[in-house]
Structure formats: structure tokens, C-alpha cells
Backbone:
């Protein structure tokens, strides 16, 4: 029974033509998960025809997404209010930032969902042409499924450790027992101001776990889209490599020019799609880097505190490594697009003079001038060099935080406690 259910979910029972490795089919399961947690409210996401995907304001998915987003804002507001009542210190901003980031991420995905059907329709036409005329270099469908599942599992494990850290911490104590004790401890920023009941505890637990997926989903989506776009550029590059190796023996000058014109037009279409995709993802990219940097700085600052228990130590090192991995993987996979878009230059510049023509010259010029990359609203470009820039920024701002947060630092040095925010 479970095997049949998974086959229906993953599309394994479809006809061979219905699971072509186009973007829509590769992301179908991932976007289904997004809708379960209340983001990306588009209709017909499970339909094998990308043209059937639509966005409608009057739908239950929009209502469900709105309620989930309101839950994030509700928890973030109460958490921030409690942190203000005891004096705003750096260590107290983890929970407010967590829920506010989930709320802003949901807003970004609403905007993306509104524009996604038009983009997907245009992109699928180009992608179908690429798949028909260019050889694939990997099983993109499996790569997307495995990568998505792995990243979600790692994210949920991080949150599970966070919950354990709260439950077994020595502070945030209350006189309740059983489930009430756990709920009041984990959601102290809510039940300090509201009466407790079991249903509220379950709802807040659902919101908390949902926020975990949403908090990570922006990075997951950027990484998966980067894998897909990198593969498409790699297919064109492979065609260029094969063509440059065979052109001397298989093509005359007229055939060669027509072939290179087609390759250049396909490359130009990929560049245009990347520009459109960058406009769609700029909000997510900017939010990803800003929030990941903030959490890294706070976690580094928290490392100055002596750990109160083994569980707390395990959670800290896992969580810190997880956030570092997020920003590194987003940078590396995003940079692969830029790297792959320029990978064909050595093949083109090594062509013999007698086979050099106007189309090849235009292609070389375009690769040089149109440097493809994801950006954060053009504030920065996602390239491999960005990783070093981020590392330098972390060191600089961490020193600033230590200097201007002496109150929190003194508290860390004089007390060994788990912070309940």
C-alpha cells in the first residue's frame, strides 16, 4: 500500500513521456511539500502538463497559506514582545527572527507563486527544445528528488534537536506536568500572556514545525533551481564541445554557420530565462543571505557561553554547522550557474581559423558580456568569490557585535544558563 502511494506521489506510475526531466516534473514533489506547509499556493501543481498550472486568488490554498502566515506573524510578534519586556539582548532575538523570517519567506513565495505560471509556460517551451536537441548529462529527476529529501530531513533534525534543547534545559521551568509542561516550556513566549489549553499547544507545535520547513525552503528552492539551470547550460556546453571536436571533419562552412547560429540562439534563450528567473528569485536570494548571516553571527556570539548540558552542546554545534552549510551550499550551487555559463569559452577560442565565423564571434562576445548569475536585487552576484566575501563579513561584524553587546557578554560570563528565546 505504502509503495503504491509513494509511486503515485512521485509519478512513477505515469507514462514515460509524462516524467520527462523538465523543471515542472522535477519540482512537482518539492512544490507539493511547499503547499503542505502553506507556501507556493498554485493550482494543478501535480498535473503533468505545465500549462495547466495556475494561480487563483479565490482558492482554499490561498486561505490556508494566509492562516499559516498569520501563525508565523502571531508567534513572532509575541516572541518579540516578550524579549522587549526583559530588555532586548542579542541572544533573545533567535525566536523572533526565526518566525519573522518564516513569515517574510512565505510572502516571497506568494509573490513567486503569482508569477510562476507565466514563467513556467515560457520556460517549458525552451526547455523542451533543449531536451530534444541537446544530450542530458545526468538523471536530473532523481538528483532533484534525493537532494530535496536530504535537505528537508537535515532541517527537521535541526529543529528536533532545538526542541530537545528546550525540553531538557534547566531554565524556563513551570509547575505543570506532561504535555502541558513541554508546551509551556517551548512556547513560553505565548503562554506567559495567554491561558494554556492542549489544542493551542498542538496548533503552536504544528506552526513551529511548519516554520522550520519554510525557514529552510527558500534555500532549498534556490539550490534545486540552480541544479536545474546548471544542467541546462551544461547540455549546451557539451554540444559546443562535441561540435568543436567534429566540425573540422563533418561540416562545411555553410553547415557550420547554421549550426552555430542555432547554438547561439539557444544560449541566448537560456540567458533570457536566467534574467527572468533572477527577477523572480532576487527577493529570496537577498532574504537568504541576510537571514543566514544574522543567524551565523548570533550563533557565533552564543558560542562564548559555556554549555549547560550535552544536549545543548550537540544542538549548538549541529545548528551552527547547519546554518553555515546553508549559506555555503546556496553560494556554491548558485555559483555553478555562472561558472557553467562561461565554461564553453575555451572550446570556442580554440577553433581553427578556417572554421571561425561570425556566429562564433557573436557567441564568444555574448558569453563575455552577458555574465549570467543569480543576484540579490543586483546588490551582489552569487559567484564562488562570494563565499570568501561572506566569511570576511562574518568576522568583521562578529567583532562589532562583541564590542557593542557587553551586557549580554557579561551575563554569559557570570551565569551558566540556557537562553529561552
Residues:
Amino acid at each position: 500500500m505504502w509503495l503504491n502511494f509513494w509511486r503515485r506521489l512521485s509519478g512513477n506510475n505515469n507514462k514515460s513521456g509524462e516524467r520527462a526531466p523538465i523543471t515542472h516534473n522535477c519540482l512537482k514533489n518539492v512544490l507539493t511539500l511547499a503547499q503542505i506547509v502553506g507556501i507556493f499556493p498554485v493550482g494543478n501543481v501535480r498535473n503533468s502538463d505545465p500549462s495547466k498550472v495556475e494561480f487563483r486568488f479565490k482558492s482554499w490554498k490561498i486561505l490556508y497559506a494566509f492562516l499559516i502566515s498569520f501563525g508565523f506573524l502571531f508567534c513572532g510578534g509575541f516572541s518579540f514582545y516578550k524579549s522587549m519586556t526583559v530588555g532586548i539582548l542579542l541572544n533573545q532575538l533567535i525566536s523572533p527572527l526565526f518566525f519573522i523570517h518564516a513569515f517574510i519567506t512565505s510572502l516571497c513565495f506568494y509573490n513567486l507563486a503569482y508569477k510562476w505560471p507565466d514563467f513556467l509556460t515560457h520556460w517549458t517551451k525552451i526547455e523542451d527544445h533543449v531536451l530534444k536537441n541537446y544530450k542530458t548529462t545526468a538523471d536530473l529527476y532523481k538528483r532533484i528528488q534525493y537532494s530535496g529529501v536530504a535537505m528537508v530531513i537535515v532541517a527537521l533534525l535541526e529543529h528536533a534537536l532545538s526542541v530537545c534543547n528546550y525540553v531538557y534545559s534547566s531554565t524556563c521551568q513551570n509547575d505543570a506536568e506532561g504535555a502541558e509542561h513541554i508546551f509551556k516550556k517551548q512556547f513560553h513566549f505565548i503562554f506567559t500572556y495567554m491561558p494554556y489549553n492542549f489544542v493551542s499547544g498542538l496548533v503552536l507545535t504544528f506552526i513551529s514545525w511548519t516554520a522550520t520547513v519554510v525557514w529552510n525552503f527558500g534555500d532549498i528552492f534556490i539550490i534545486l533551481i540552480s541544479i536545474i539551470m546548471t544542467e541546462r547550460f551544461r547540455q549546451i556546453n557539451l554540444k559546443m564541445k562535441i561540435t568543436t571536436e567534429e566540425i573540422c571533419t563533418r561540416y562545411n562552412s555553410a553547415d557550420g554557420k547554421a549550426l552555430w547560429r542555432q547554438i547561439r540562439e539557444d544560449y541566448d534563450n537560456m540567458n533570457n530565462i536566467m534574467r527572468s528567473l533572477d527577477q523572480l528569485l532576487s527577493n529570496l536570494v537577498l532574504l537568504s543571505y541576510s537571514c543566514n548571516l544574522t543567524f551565523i553571527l548570533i550563533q557565533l556570539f552564543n558560542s562564548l557561553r559555556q554549555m549547560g548540558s550535552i544536549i545543548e552542546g550537540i544542538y549548538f554545534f549541529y545548528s551552527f554547522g547547519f546554518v553555515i552549510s546553508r549559506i555555503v551550499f546556496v553560494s556554491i550551487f548558485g555559483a555553478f550557474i555562472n561558472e557553467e555559463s562561461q565554461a564553453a569559452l575555451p572550446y570556442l577560442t580554440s577553433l581553427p581559423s578556417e572554421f571561425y565565423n561570425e556566429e562564433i564571434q557573436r557567441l564568444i562576445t555574448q558569453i563575455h558580456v552577458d555574465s549570467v548569475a543569480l543576484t540579490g536585487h543586483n546588490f551582489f552576484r552569487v559567484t564562488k568569490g562570494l563565499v570568501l566575501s561572506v566569511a570576511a563579513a562574518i568576522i568583521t561584524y562578529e567583532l562589532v557585535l562583541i564590542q557593542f553587546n557587553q551586557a549580554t557578554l557579561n551575563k554569559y560570563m557570570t551565569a551558566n544558563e540556557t537562553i529561552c528565546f
